Amino acid sequence: MRNTRLLRPGRRSALLGFTAAVGLSVAAVTLPTSAGAAHHRPVRPTIVLEHGAFADAASWDGVVSRLQRAGYPVVSAANPLRGPATDAAYLRSVLDHIDGPVVLVGHSYGGTVISQAAAGREDKVKALVYIAAFLPDTGESSIGLTNKFPGSTLGEAVESVNYALPDGGKGTDVYIAPEKFRGQFAADVPKDKAALMAAGQRPIAAAALEEKSTRAAWKTIPSWSLVTTEDRNIPVAAQRFMSARAKARTTTVDASHAVSVSRPEAVTRIVEQAARTVR
Question: Which Gene3D superfamilies does the entry link to (predicted)?
Fold first, then answer.
């Protein structure tokens, strides 16, 4: 007889309702019921995946399926894309509903979010994995790090939408023009798949890219980084600089910014490397 266990008793039903409301994808891990077997097969860490701008939780699907087959519980979280402080607070609320250790994975701007969300949560978050991502230090912004090195063509591919805020103010969202999406974001993704990604992309608040980080969890939590050499969003030189500064265990792959879609096996491999260090 085997049972499923992800949450403390009494909280599983609450989280199921919560995940249905916010669109999280949760996979439970099966554990043996005998004390002796449990001693030899400890609970695996939960892998929490945070997407970045111009993507959504579905961008992790290929990674999620591989991690689930390997026996890991997985949460593919919805990123509000409103700003590092707001998005990190939301991600922390997700972490609060998970028992046991966590490996936190961020793609692109999601790296900025996990760096802030995990700070001070070393009791929960045991490893950070950055996938073609930002690893900002305190006082740095995503746009500032992008412009620190040449190579990004994102500015030529994005369009903006202005909207009114409830308080009477105005906001601006940015997204990649659909006709430029594949070349800019997902050049190594099949054309039909890239078209679906372009149609379903999540825009990010322009202010989020300019907002400065206030915490840098990679200073206290072991980190891994996957650098993408064909990236047109974040220059490869910027990725290497940030990874080296954080002393992250770094792997390089010839892939576009959409590496979780085009090379899910490479992404899964580095996530599992981090997960295996968790005791």
Answer: alpha/beta hydrolase (3.40.50.1820)
Look over the chain and give the mean of its residue pLDDT values, rounded to a whole number.
88
CATH class of 2-147+204-275: alpha beta
| 8 Å CB contact between 210 and 172 | no
What are the two backbone dihedrals, phi and then psi, of residue 119, each rounded to the nearest 5 degrees?
Answer: -60, 130
Distance of CA 162 to the CA centre of its chain: 26
Would you give the distance in Å from CA 8 to the centre of its chain?
Answer: 25
Question: Which stretch of DSSP H or E encloses residue 259?
Answer: helix 259-262
Please state the φ and ψ torsions of residue 32, each to the nearest 5 degrees: -70, 150
Sign of CA dihedral 218, 224, 230, 231: negative
Is the pTM higher than 0.90? The answer reads no
Please name the residue that has the structure tokens 């961020």: 106
Percent of all residues in the chain with a pLDDT value above 70, rounded to a whole number:
85
Higher pLDDT, 226 or 167: 226
Q: Where are the beta strands (DSSP E) in the chain?
A: 2-5, 25-26, 29-32, 46-50, 74-77, 102-107, 125-131, 158-164, 170-176, 204-205, 223-228, 249-253
Whole-number Å distance between alpha carbons of 151 and 17: 44
